[in-house]
From TrEMBL:
PANTHER family reported in the protein's UniProt record: ACTIVATOR OF C KINASE PROTEIN 1-RELATED, CHITIN SYNTHASE REGULATORY FACTOR 2-RELATED
Name of a matching Pfam family: Sel1
Cross-referenced Gene3D superfamilies: Tetratricopeptide repeat domain (1.25.40.10)
Organism: Thalassiosira oceanica
Bias (Basic and acidic residues): 365-382
Name of the protein in its database record: RING-type domain-containing protein
Region (Disordered): 334-382
Length: 382
């Protein structure tokens, strides 16, 4: 058959009146039925319109999903994403994953928005380094730090926007406590991909003390944070499922966070195993993953810093830098501010969720500039 012939073959055939009528009537029948029911492209059930979200109703059958199938696939994505620590969760100097304990084992630097582990802070202190070990900017006091954070936030730095939010939420650095402003900043930071911002919004709506309680909204934000690799958000999702009696989903969440090195999650799996809600294999893989993560998070410098304790690191720094006692006093107070409440480990009973985290790490603010040689603030590299 030549091309012309092929084209001719595709010409619409003559239709009898009867054919047209039949076609019309079947279309009419279909459209009348589709007012009340639609077929889900995944489970292939014919379900009433209310089983679909408004936007799903408009889609063609092959890609249309009922709400049950949407929830199931969302759950699948939730369990698949955020199973490892993100790039942002690594020390900017030694590049190892940051420790998860919020007891002052990390330092947040307002000058360059970097988070450093205590191992690197101790190494810098031993070296007699006075300025930020990353960007060499002198450690600022509170008002200088606020200027730095605001400047970076105005320039659209996601971590600066988030950190400014924490200052408003807790009324720090001389700012008046303003939770509404904090939520605005968190929402902006969350849009820019800061998982901690999602987490903090989640905690605010979950607790409902400073904003109107909205657990569904809190969970949505916990989910976004967890999919970005936030361990505390993953733990809270596990707690939420546990407290709702969904032990299987709770176990899936806790397995992920335990393997990322979270001790409380490991404790929950152990309790679940003892209650017969998790298998021995679950506990064994969680324990193995947990230990591997702990190994990845340790280094000789960090071990030394840990054995010395935050106090001793400060003393080393103070001794090397010849700084006054009051700097140590202030830094010590800050370190205590960040001590995280430990989660209760219970069997099938209630499971305590983790409360908000302030910054991703403790701030370091020093007054030592007064005691050391004067720095010209204009000369700071930002
Ligand atoms: Zn379906
Ligand atoms: Zn480090
Ligand atoms: Zn810096």
């Amino acid at each position: 058959m030549n091309i012309r012939g092929a084209l001719q073959g595709k010409r619409p055939q003559y239709r009898s009146n009867m054919f047209v009528t039949k076609k019309w009537s079947s279309w009419f029948r279909l459209s009348r039925e589709s007012v009340s029911t639609k077929t889900c492209g995944a489970c292939e059930r014919e379900l009433p319109d209310e089983s679909y979200s408004v936007e799903q109703r408009g889609l063609r059958q092959s890609i249309r999903r009922c709400e049950e199938c949407v929830a199931a696939s969302n759950q699948l994505v939730l369990m698949k994403k955020g199973r490892t620590r993100s790039e942002a969760d690594h020390c900017s100097i030694c590049c190892l994953p940051l420790p998860l304990d919020a007891d002052g084992s990390t330092l947040f630097k307002a000058c360059c928005m970097n988070i450093l582990c205590n191992g690197c802070t101790l190494a810098a202190a031993n070296f007699g380094m006075e300025d930020c070990p990353f960007c060499r900017v002198p450690t600022p006091d509170e008002s200088q730090a606020l200027v730095m954070i605001k400047k970076l936030a105005d320039a659209g730095d996601p971590l600066a926007v988030y950190n400014l939010g924490t200052k408003y939420e807790y009324g720090e650095y001389g700012l008046e406590k303003d939770v509404t402003r904090a939520v605005e900043l968190y929402e902006r930071a969350a849009e820019l991909g800061v998982k901690e911002a999602h987490y903090n919004i989640g905690v605010l709506y979950d607790e409902g003390t400073d904003v109107e309680k909205d657990v569904a909204k809190a969970i949505r934000h916990y989910e976004s944070a967890a999919m970005g690799g936030d361990v505390s958000a993953r733990y809270n999702l596990g707690s939420e499922e546990h407290n709702s009696g969904n032990y299987d989903l709770a176990l899936q969440h806790f397995l992920i966070s335990a393997k990322m090195g979270d001790e409380d999650s490991l404790g929950m799996i152990k309790a679940a195993f003892m209650d017969g809600l998790a298998s021995k294999a679950d506990y064994a893989t969680a324990l193995r993953g947990y230990r591997e993560s702990i190994d990845e998070m340790s280094s000789p410098d960090r071990d030394k810093a840990k054995s010395l304790g935050f106090e001793e690191i400060l003393r080393t720094a103070a001794h090397n830098l010849k700084v006054p006692e009051r700097w140590m006093e202030q830094s010590r107070r800050r370190a205590q501010d960040w001590t995280a409440p430990t989660a209760a480990v219970a069997g099938a009973g209630q499971c305590t969720k983790r409360r908000g985290q302030m910054t991703a790490a403790g701030d370091e603010i020093a007054e030592r500039r007064a005691a050391t040689k004067g720095h010209d603030p204009k000369g700071w590299r930002l």
